[in-house]
Structure formats: C-alpha cells, structure tokens
C-alpha cells in the first residue's frame, strides 16, 4: 500500500501547483457592493492566504446578472474586472492560489434584486421572489452555457488559477439534475442522462474556453437532502460521465439544497433567530413562525460527508476534494489515506483564518469552531465568525467610492 501524500506539501491541481492540499471552500462573503470588489473582499481572501491555505475560493461569482443570489453580488461585468485583478494579485502576493466559483443561481437567485425572474428547469413558484420562476428555454440554456465559458475566460484574464463550477445546492445546473425540480419532457428532462445534459454541456464549454491554462473544478451534489431529489445513486454515474468527458481536473463533493434544505450541508445547530433578523418582512415573519420546518438541525461529526464521498471515490479516478467537517490535521490525514487529493475548509477557517499555519507548526492544534452556524446569516452583512471580534476588518464604507478597489 502506497504512502498517503502529506496534506501540507505542494500538490498539482491540473496545470496549477498549490503549496499544499488545503483549500478555503467557497462561502459567500457578502462583501461586494454594486457587483464590484471592495477592499474588505480583498482582505477577506488575503487573510486566508496569509493564514496558510494552498488556495482560496472567491464565492460566488455569477455568470450573469440574473444568476445572482444577492443584488450586490459580483457577476462578470467589465466594471468588476479591475477589482478582481486586484484581488488575485493580493492573494498571489501571499503565496496562495485563488479560484473563482462560477455558476447561475437559478431558483436560488434574488429575482427582485436582479430585476428578472428566477430561472428553473420547470415553471415553479418562487417564494423568495413572490412570483413564478421562468422555465428555461433552449435559448436560455445556450445563453447560460456560453456565460459560463465567458466567465472562465474572464477568470483567466483577471489572474485566477482555477474556476469552480457550481453544480450543487439546487442552483440552476443542480436543479436540472433533480428529478423533484426538473419536470421537463425535452432533451433536458426525464431520465438521468437527459437531466445531466445541461451540467455536462456547461463543463464542456468551460473546458473548451480555458483549455489547460487554469484548473477546472466541478462542485457536485451527492444528495439534495430532500425527498424525491438528486441522490447518491445518481451522483455516481454523473461523476463517471464528467470523468469520461475529460472536462474537470478535480471534483468537490457537496450536499444539500439552498432552496429546500440549506442546513443539510452544514450539520450542527440551525440559527433560526439570527436568520430571521437579517431578512425584511414578510420573510422575517415566515422564518419566525415556520422556520424550524425549513431550517433543520443535524448532528455534527467530523468528516460528515466522507461516508458518501468514498462511494464516489471508489467509482472514479479523478482527483477529489473532501468537504464537510474538515477541522484538524487528524481529519486531513484521514482524507489523504482514503484517497482524496485535497481537503476544503470553511467554518473552521472563518473562526481562525490562520488555522493552517498553526496546524503546520503543531499537528495537534485543535479547531475552535463549535459549529453553531451563526456565521451563516452574516453572509448578508459580511461573512464572519460571530464569536470573534473583527469589526475593524468588516466593510464599513458601503455606498462610498473608497469602498471599491475597481
């Protein structure tokens, strides 16, 4: 049996060499303004680069204006590019690589903020937009596919080392995969091969756009966490098809539905009151009265996605990224022994941005994250661990020109 790799040693991700195998997972930062980069967004990612990660992931960079989950969210407009270039340069100066998460939010999009109806595989009521989502036409599918390719080209132009294509959480591509959400009767609906067609076309378009210039990661759901949704038995063949297509350099495995069961990915406590406080009426009232039916609590354990992820690991040879409950060196080493090429961390790094450096200095270093999930509602005001006072690094210049970097 071969010796597993050292998680803190350099590693190849497609055409990119990372200084170690630890990736800061995509967590929407809530620090862009009018779809442009702010100094606080740059500082957010510089902190993780300085703290020792091999690569940090900028989330979420919508491929089109109508694909945003928030009206301030970055999309790949001409105006956003200088700021994105400034961000990648700042991260590179700290010795880390940087990835851009790209995708279209679909039913998770902010229809009112975007000034356009949410896009879905089939017509469906959009409770967030208080209207009907639009069933995507074949023209919409072509438009969004090309928008992914253009986003990837712009990621190269602004200095990103990788793109992470969002095929999870019931965002648009993921909703096409879901038999619960996809009721189409054309070439993009019905059996799994048809439901996976859109995701595969997106990945082909991205690969064709970038060639081998940057790394391409696909973030794929293993389980939507809802009855009748996409599940592991279908995720395995989709992962195999992506491998056969030759469109991805690594596969990051995730779970849950931002639309129907957002806590399924995170495990731990569900912060009902904190979520209610960040929304305006009538959503605030709804969360306070029926939020427990929507925001479920799930028991937390380290490496909680490993059991499902190892089943996909056994079915494909692609490099894979283990996400979910990666908190310390013990979990990292376990992932390496199980054949994963990289690990992705989110909440633990929100609590301690320098955790990787501290683990490198002392392998027994524990994570201080208590999985209270109170960081989740903060992505509307600047994502952070609420147990740490970092008010001086939060965005305090929204609406003023000095809040921008480009």
Task: Please give a structural write-up.
It is globular and about 55 Å long. The protein contains 14 helices and 13 strands. The strands form 3 sheets. It has an 8-stranded parallel β-barrel with strand order 3-4-5-9-10-11-12-13, surrounded by 7 helices. Strands 6-8-7 form a 3-stranded mixed beta sheet. α1 (39-50) runs parallel beside α2 (81-93), α4 packs parallel to α7 (197-210) and α9 (272-278) packs antiparallel against α10 (283-294). The chain has helices at residues 39-50, 81-93, 111-114, 138-157, 172-177, 192-195, 197-210, 232-245, 272-278, 283-294, 306-313, 329-337, 347-351, 355-361; strands spanning 11-13, 16-18, 22-24, 55-62, 97-103, 119-120, 124-126, 131-135, 162-167, 215-221, 250-254, 320-323, 342-345. It is of the alpha/beta class. A hairpin with a 2-residue loop joins β1 and β2 (16-18).
Brief descriptors of the model:
406 residues, alpha/beta, eight-stranded parallel barrel, 14 helices
